[in-house]
Amino acid sequence: MTPFWVTAFLDLAPYDHEEGLALWERLTGYQRSAPRGAAAEFVSLVPADGDDFLRVQRLGSGPSRVHLDLHVDDPFAAAEQAVRRGARVVADLGDYLTLTSPGGFTFCYVAHPASRRPSTDTSVADQVCLDIPSSLYDDEFDFWAELTGWRPRAPRPDDEFARLTPGDDQPLQLLLQRLDEEQGAVRAHLDWSSDDRDEEVARHVELGATFVERFDRGWTVLRGPDGFTYCVTERQTGVRPT
């Protein structure tokens, strides 16, 4: 069941939550929604136009991380299909389900409506990169390719990156990185596209991010006060790589 929308969730540790959320508000320029959930643990970062695709959760415990929400018409039917492909259901919350991929990455099936991609800015967090241990890489790529139905650029022996590209109506795309480590759980980080990488990095640092490392291949790694890293890349904003 192909998702009609994908949301990236920033799951922030309780001791990092407020500072991390404030940074992502500043970076995106999006407005914080009213909190919701049983413990007021969820907020959306709402763009000036279009539907939100970045949300923040205050965790009860544990380190900060990223997970995905896949929006589908029938979360329970979609979950059954995902389980047949190797996923595992870890929680049934009534109106949505939490699962893990075969490699242990957390995602949810939800039915929340969304359809309007926000206007493209000169810099935007528009890509989720799944960081995958090498022994899990091929199976995890096949799993996400089947789950999304998006256009694949399959793994190649000489390249640690593969890609799943949705239609132009979607706000996020998926990059899959093969890590040097062989074992471990799949995790994720966000990537920003930018028309001027160094200028964008300087903006992020001024707003409160910490510079980690610059790579000549086209990306710079930064870290937020929420504890996880993300990248600013040289991908042209609004252009989907092939």
The main β sheet shows up as: 8 strands, mixed
Rounded mean pLDDT is: 94
pLDDT < 50 runs, ≥5 residues:
none
CATH superfamily of the largest domain: 2,3-Dihydroxybiphenyl 1,2-Dioxygenase, domain 1
N-to-C order of helices and strands: EHEEEEHEEEEHEEEEHEEE
Q: Tally of extended strands? A: 16
CATH class of the largest domain: Alpha Beta
Q: If helices are DSSP runs of H or I spanning 4 or more residues, what is the number of helices?
A: 4
**What is the beta-strand fraction?**
35-45%
Q: Mind telling me which CATH architecture of the largest domain this is? A: Roll
Radius of gyration: 17 Å
Strand order of the largest sheet: 2-3-4-1-5-8-7-6
What general outline do the C-alpha atoms trace?
Answer: globular
What features would you describe in this structure?
The chain is of the alpha+beta class. It has 2 domains: 5-110, 2,3-Dihydroxybiphenyl 1,2-Dioxygenase, domain 1, CATH 3.10.180; 123-233, 2,3-Dihydroxybiphenyl 1,2-Dioxygenase, domain 1, CATH 3.10.180. The chain has helices spanning 17-28, 75-84, 137-148, 197-207, and strands at residues 5-12, 31-32, 42-46, 54-58, 65-71, 88-92, 97-100, 106-110, 123-132, 151-153, 161-165, 173-178, 187-194, 210-215, 219-223, 229-233. A hairpin with a 7-residue loop joins strand 11 and strand 12 (173-178).
Short description:
By secondary structure, the chain is an alpha+beta fold. It has helices spanning 17-28, 75-84, 137-148, 197-207, and strands spanning 5-12, 31-32, 42-46, 54-58, 65-71, 88-92, 97-100, 106-110, 123-132, 151-153, 161-165, 173-178, 187-194, 210-215, 219-223, 229-233.
